[in-house]
Amino acid sequence: MREFTEASLTEAVVKRIGRTPDARLKKIMSSLIRHLHAFVRETRPTEAEWAAGIEFLTKTGHMCDGKRQEFILVSDTLGVSMLVDFINYGRHAKATESTVTGPFFVPGAPDVPIGGSIAAPGTPGQPARVSGSVKDDKGKPIAGAVLDVWQASGEGFYDVQPQSNTSGGTNLRGKIRTDANGEFWFRTVLPVSYPVPTDGPVGRMLKATGRHPMRPGHLHFAIEAPGFRRLVTHLFTAGDKYLDSDAVFGVKKSLVVKYKKAKSGEWTVHHDFVLVKSGKRPRR
Amino acid sequence: MREFTEASLTEAVVKRIGRTPDARLKKIMSSLIRHLHAFVRETRPTEAEWAAGIEFLTKTGHMCDGKRQEFILVSDTLGVSMLVDFINYGRHAKATESTVTGPFFVPGAPDVPIGGSIAAPGTPGQPARVSGSVKDDKGKPIAGAVLDVWQASGEGFYDVQPQSNTSGGTNLRGKIRTDANGEFWFRTVLPVSYPVPTDGPVGRMLKATGRHPMRPGHLHFAIEAPGFRRLVTHLFTAGDKYLDSDAVFGVKKSLVVKYKKAKSGEWTVHHDFVLVKSGKRPRR
């Protein structure tokens, strides 16, 4: 009869999944089992600590619904999402850098014509005008690139958050297409710093570990064009006091942009995005 | 401005929790961050694989309610619960060994007098009589020890599972106290092998990794007495075909007991439990 010890258990569990048909799944699960066991061996949790872990995961799951993704927030705040970002997109000479998607992306944003606004009338915040271009790494403009943009309001809430003032409608989201010259512009409000949601398990974790929940102001972009890799990135607002301590570790210097105040009082910024051709492997 | 690389990110995240007031929490979280990042570095998940992981956790959370604990089932089926058991209870000369609690323990089981039955009339299964004693490691009987017992029916379901025939009531659970001689006996049905719940994420994980979901037949015990460590254990049914491949790795040879058929047709078993005094550290 098989019987295990603290020493023999881990490899017995790995052996148990030895007949996993999918080789990639087998590799991931074997690695997961070994790292999970290594974590337990190192920390030697009491039964009560183990139960607290089970409860944290359970409450995190219960916090998730169609509008809230608390597990992505766990991944973001523990730096896992950025690690996945580094591994997948990596760095490419000349190309715009990527950063985290975050928990607030919603597919199916409305189309917004060039020059239109993604902010519904009355959206809290200072008016801003964002312009730029999408090019390849040789400087050639990409016409018809789709920029899926989303952001929080001047009060720091996304439309899907219960605190937003958008009464359930879509706001501060839009899909904009570059024109024949690869250029675009749209109106919105100035992105400001805001806390990630703190009313769930992640908020309690941040507090218990002495961390603030703030992210520097930023505008999200997911940019797609045929023949190019999808780029998920932010433009961070220069001068924000949280650029050095983003709660999700997402800041990259090249993504910080300076808004200028026009005579009209509108904040303006211009940024040229450079996409990577499909299939290009990152440099490390 | 701080900016991270794949190489520098992990220690930056650990540093971010450097002001955690609780030293134990700081140690656990630092270890969690490093092991989680090590897992990601080793497996290098694609964005789609990372998203599948988030979805697995989310669905596991959504499966949990007052009667179902899918995260405990994840912990059990990946051997983590047994590792925590080894670390905490360990081995003690002469004392009864421990094993997993599992996801089906419910506090507040009804008191059952010695000689009573934990099985409601009509419970599917073959009649059984379980007797034994509770002693200290010097062989001294422990009077008034409380044995909290629970098990699945002869059809392999616990009362809290939707497939059970108990129409929402408590069944196959009870708290029994040892008499002045440290002895007890009660009636029930013979424990048989059964699958852990397979209608959720854990079931899909077991199938995808080529594993069966079966546990050998067993009767759960949580035994408490003043001055002694609480013992959580099973008695496994000898001869069960799944003793060698328990889906949660919980079998220990010393916990396998042989039921004998009495002339009345009732299965009978006798087992003497030995408790460890409070504060005794396990030998490894």
Offer a quick outline of the entry:
With 284 residues, chain A is an alpha+beta fold. Helix content of chain A is 25%, strand content 20%. Chain A is globular, with a radius of gyration of 22 Å.
Write the layout of secondary structure elements.
The structure is a homodimer of 284-residue chains.
Chain A (H helix, E strand, L loop, with lengths): L8 H8 L6 H21 L3 H17 L6 H8 L2 H9 L38 E9 L10 E5 L22 E5 L5 E7 L4 E2 L5 H8 L5 E2 L2 E7 L6 E7 L18 E2 L2 E2 L5 E8 L10
Parallel strand pairs in A: 1-11, 8-9
Antiparallel strand pairs in A: 1-4, 2-3, 2-7, 5-6, 7-8, 10-11
Overview of this structure, please?
2 copies of one chain form a homodimer. Chain A is α+β, with helices and mostly antiparallel strands and 284 residues long. Helices cover 25% and strands 20% of the residues of chain A. Chain A contains 6 helices and 11 strands. In chain A, the strands form 3 sheets. In chain A, strands 3-2-7-8-9 form a 5-stranded mixed sheet, with no helix packed on it. Chain A is globular, with a radius of gyration of 22 Å. The mean pLDDT of chain A is 95. Chains A and B meet through helix 1, helix 2, helix 3, helix 4 and helix 5 of A and helix 1, helix 2, helix 3, helix 4 and helix 5 of B.
Notable traits:
homodimer, 284 residues, alpha+beta, Protocatechuate 3,4-Dioxygenase, subunit A, 2 domains, five-stranded mixed β-sheet, four-stranded mixed β-sheet, 11 strands
**Could you say which overall geometry of chain A the principal axes of the C-alpha atoms support?**
globular
- The CATH superfamily name of the largest domain in chain A is Aromatic compound dioxygenase
Can you tell me the CATH topology of the largest domain in chain A? Protocatechuate 3,4-Dioxygenase, subunit A
Protein chains sharing the most extensive interface: A-B, 75 and 74 residues
Radius of gyration of chain A: 22 Å
Level-1 CATH class name of the largest domain in chain A: Mainly Beta
Q: Order of helices and strands of chain A, N to C?
A: HHHHHEEEEEHEEEEEE
Average pLDDT for all residues of chain A: 95
By oligomeric state, this entry counts as: homodimer
Low-confidence stretches of chain A: none
Number of helices of chain A: 6
Number of domains of chain A: 2
Q: Count every beta strand of chain A, where a strand is a DSSP E run of 2 or more residues.
A: 11
Q: Report the helical percentage of chain A.
A: 25-40%
Strand order of the largest sheet of chain A: 3-2-7-8-9
* Class by SSE composition of chain A: alpha+beta
Distance between the termini of chain A: 49 Å
